[in-house]
Design brief:
Elements (H helix, E strand, L loop, with lengths): L2 H23 L3 H28 L1
Helix pairs in contact: 1-2
Length: about 55
């Protein structure tokens, strides 16, 4: 996985966590759900990149 991809995924995960916390603090269920979705998306991208890395070896 490229360094840029890792950075993008880490940023998306961090943003998702922030959205979830703010949504929880403000009782905004939509924002909280969006944060969880962002985190899940980041995790899926990481998993896909790890699979690609495994086949490169």
């Amino acid at each position: 996985m490229g360094l840029a991809d890792k950075a993008k995924n880490a940023a998306e995960d961090a943003l998702g966590k922030a959205k979830e916390v703010v949504g929880d603090a403000t009782d905004d269920k939509d924002l909280k759900a969006e944060g969880k979705k962002d985190q899940a998306s980041s995790s899926l991208k990481d998993a896909g990149e790890n699979v690609k890395d495994a086949f490169k070896k």
